[in-house]
TrEMBL record:
InterPro entries: Amidase_Cbmase (IPR010158), Bact_exopeptidase_dim_dom (IPR036264), Peptidase_M20 (IPR002933), Peptidase_M20_dimer (IPR011650)
Free-text comment on the cofactor: Binds 2 Zn(2+) ions per subunit.
Residues bound to Zn(2+) 1: 78, 89, 189
Biological source species: Psychrobacillus glaciei
Name this protein carries in UniProt: Zn-dependent hydrolase
SUPFAM superfamilies per the UniProt record, alphabetical: Bacterial exopeptidase dimerisation domain, Zn-dependent exopeptidases
């Protein structure tokens, strides 16, 4: 069996673990996700890897190195999905890592450094509203008090979900590996955007991962009859929200050189009716960039706009910051190596940023990190139609294998 057919079988075997009929639903700490995780552990055991699951549910599979005591070279991603997600997000990175190990075993390659695969737990925020939980725990960033009482749509707390998986929530801090040494970490991932496809490139070499600041904005005007309230006597909350929305778009477009983006993903008109001037509107705003300065300029402009709209339209506006995260820059040295590998193999590539978060960003607290993108057709992700051609996945695996060998060092 050639590498392509072998990998396709592996990929399809993982994606058989699914609930529902549309897309892939394999939510963190669910029966489907746990069954899939344990199946992956058995696959790793078949390749003679040493397997363990840590206190957060991360799977660590290690291939021994020739020299005792050297730090591991690590690769991986996640197996959990959003509700009705796609087959590729996360899964490509985990299965690609195992395919690399299969290739090394098949060729009898021995490396100086040990090599690890990590399948991170709960990368998606779909269940509990918090993302990259497993890599946060590994990087010593697990917020025990905050996460304990987070609930899913069925009212199950994160602590209870852990217990149902035979994991002790009180012991999660033991998953931290901040006192260990790592040589490097690599994550192969679909782009989840249209850049590589539109530019006809096969590999994206990621320089940084954008981080969001998120706000919850409530706009209170005065509900009134649409037919009897003159235009100059209205306190229309929706028009205030519209003005803020367009100003935010303008501010983000002025920062395009920094890759900064802004999105209003929620806009609710409370008690809305066709014949009522909107009296209350709720907005949820996401502003993200790899440049803190650029992101702050957009945020400042937004806050000034809110103040102006509040005054000019005589509205009450409450803006609450939900979260603010730090953007992450990835290893320049690793990116130079990845660039060199692509050029040696004559693989088209592009230096780019990631607008989405990944486990890789938490691993930067432990070691140098490389994030490799492969194309997403139509830029789709978190969607049943998410798709990356198998040939593109195989190119990504080829680059990952060379990077792992570069850092793990072959015994000649």
């Amino acid at each position: 069996m050639d590498n392509k057919k072998r990998y396709e079988l592996l990929f399809n075997n993982i994606n058989q673990y699914n609930s529902g009929e549309k897309g892939i639903t394999r939510i963190a700490y669910s029966n489907e996700e746990q069954t899939c995780t344990h199946a992956f552990m058995r696959m790793c055991m078949a390749e003679h890897l040493d397997i363990r699951m840590d206190q957060c549910g991360n799977v660590i599979a290690r291939r021994k190195g020739r020299i005792e005591g050297l730090p591991p070279v690590v690769m991986g991603s996640h197996l959990d999905t959003v509700y009705q997600g796609g087959k590729y997000d996360g899964v490509v990175g985990v299965t690609a890592a195992l395919e690399v190990i299969k290739r090394l075993n098949e060729k009898g390659v021995e490396t100086d450094h040990p090599i690890e695969i990590i399948s991170f737990a709960c990368e998606e925020s779909a269940r509990f509203g918090v993302s990259t939980v497993g890599s946060k725990a590994m990087a010593g960033q697990f917020d025990h008090n905050r996460y304990r009482n987070l609930v899913d749509k069925d009212g199950i707390t994160m602590e209870k979900a852990f217990a149902l998986c035979a994991l002790d929530f009180k012991s999660v801090e033991q998953a931290s590996r901040v006192d260990e040494q790592f040589k490097a970490f690599f994550e192969l991932h679909i782009e989840q955007g249209p850049v590589l496809i539109n530019n006809d490139k096969k590999i994206g070499i990621v320089t940084g991962i954008a981080a969001p600041v998120r706000l919850h904005v409530k706009i209170m005007g005065k509900a009134s009859h649409s037919g009897t309230t003159p235009m100059n006597m209205r306190n229309d909350a929706l028009l205030g929200a519209s003005e803020i929305s367009l100003a935010l778009e303008s501010a983000a477009k002025s920062e395009e050189d920094f890759g900064t983006v802004a999105t209003i993903g929620v806009l609710n008109v409370h008690n809305g009716a066709m014949n009522v001037v909107p009296g209350e509107v709720e907005m949820k705003i996401d502003i993200r960039s790899t440049s803190l300065q650029s992101r702050q300029r957009v945020l400042d402009y937004l806050n000034q706009t809110i103040a102006n709209v509040k005054k000019n339209r005589q509205l009450e506006i409450e803006s609450i910051e939900i979260s603010s995260e730090e953007p992450v820059l990835l290893s320049k040295e690793i990116n130079e190596v990845l660039k060199s590998i692509c050029e040696e193999k004559n693989i088209s590539n592009q230096i780019m940023q990631s607008g989405a978060g990944h486990d890789a960003m938490n691993m930067t607290k432990l070691c140098p990190v490389g994030l490799i993108f492969i194309p997403s057709v139509d830029g789709l992700s978190h969607h049943p139609n998410e798709y990356t051609p198998l040939d593109d996945v195989m190119i990504g695996i080829d680059i990952l294998e060379e990077a792992i060998l570069h850092y793990a060092k072959i015994n000649n």
